[in-house]
Amino acid sequence: MEVFFFGGSFNPPHRGHRHVIETVSKLYPHALLYVCPNFVSPFKVGEKSFTPEEIWNLCLAEFEGLLSENVILWDEEIKQTNISYTVDSLKTLKSLHPHSEISLVIGEDNLEFFDKWKSYSEILSSTKQILVVRRETPYPKEILIPPFLSESQVKILENPILPMSSTEIRKISNGDWENQFVSPKTRELAMQFLKEKQGKGFE
Predict the structure, then answer these.
(1) Within-domain flag for 176
(2) What CATH number should be reported for the domain holding residue 34?
(3) Which end of the chain offers a freer environment for a tag, N or C, measured as fewer CB atoms within 10 Å?
(4) What is the band of 195 on the pLDDT scale with cuts at 50, 70, 90?
């Protein structure tokens, strides 16, 4: 059985993330997909708007209807209080599925700087492929694969562009996000969390 790892800050989770889950699930219906929110990304220290529990609940809301026996919301990273590294999570995932091939799911925005990830060469040697799902370059324009990656190990999907990111969504500080970005349930929950923080004197 193939196993896919899809990590990120999910701060907040949005329809772009849903699109990744839907795409991988459709292309690989018999594979396992681990969706793994982190609490502290090495590239986003100090950017958190929500607590780990809030992020987890927002993910449950946004990914409602997508989670199943094959699509698993995994708490391996978000339960930690220190910085999470993909290489460590992949080792844990391999211990859970020692006889399976593991692939990494990333967005195009991560492709160019993949060599900045901790132990990126170890990640490459321990995974079957890197699946690039969230495009930023309009299809059919070619996405260039950096020289430190083998073209044979990178699979770029021809999926449509969804122009959104958690960073841009967070700029709407009161959580009043449009339905084109997040589901109504996620929006309602995020507004509740942010109002509670404002009531307690948080920015």
Answers:
(1) no
(2) 3.40.50.620
(3) C
(4) confident
